[in-house]
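Practice record 12: protein with D-xylitol-5-phosphate.
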Amino acid sequence: MKLISPSLLSADFGNLQRDIEMLNASECDWLHVDVMDGIFVPNISFGQPIVKHIKKYAKKPLDVHLMIMDPGRYVEDFKNAGADILTIHYEACHHHDRVLHAIHDAGMKGGVVLNPSSPVSLLEDIIQECDLVLLMSVNPGFGGQKFIENTYAKVRQLRALCDRKHLECLIEVDGGVNLQNASLLFEAGADVLVAGNAVFKSDDPTATIHQMKQ
Ligand code: DX5
Ligand code: ZN
């Protein structure tokens, strides 16, 4: 699969409706929504009220990436705000199995996120509960950072793990994705690419999304 999930963190927050309508009309598949708490990551982005406004205009699934400690506390809240897909950081949560069940019970797709320094082997006993796994290719917290090259190897390891267990879990990559590395990531086995700056800071975001999908 070759899906693109543009990250609204790089959108113009003063013109969110305009930017969401641009994405609605583009070939992108999901809208990536980065929620940060200033504790798990150094930055604070936005919470449920903004997600609710995004939902009002979005015509595509909201792919909500929770960069918050103890994310199980907010599963219902983000469901009510309009999340379709909810991902939780392995490093921010003690009870992955319980939280993934809560996400599914609430009617959302769910997955685990790994920081760049967290090995794929951590997923051995939880991947069967994941609809997707998100591999961070930068240290989470900010848009516009440089892609970490070790990610290609992790994508291949994760693909091998899914194959070995006969699982159809999607592989998503987030951070520093651009027109140069997108095709290499798809080739390595990624299914979904998140792109913030590469889309929103380009001269023609719609064309950039089109090119990324090629
Ligand atoms: C970083 C976020 C990313 C970020 C990606 O913590 O999870 O989704 O918005 O931005 P770029 O594509 O600019 O690296
Ligand atoms: Zn993200």
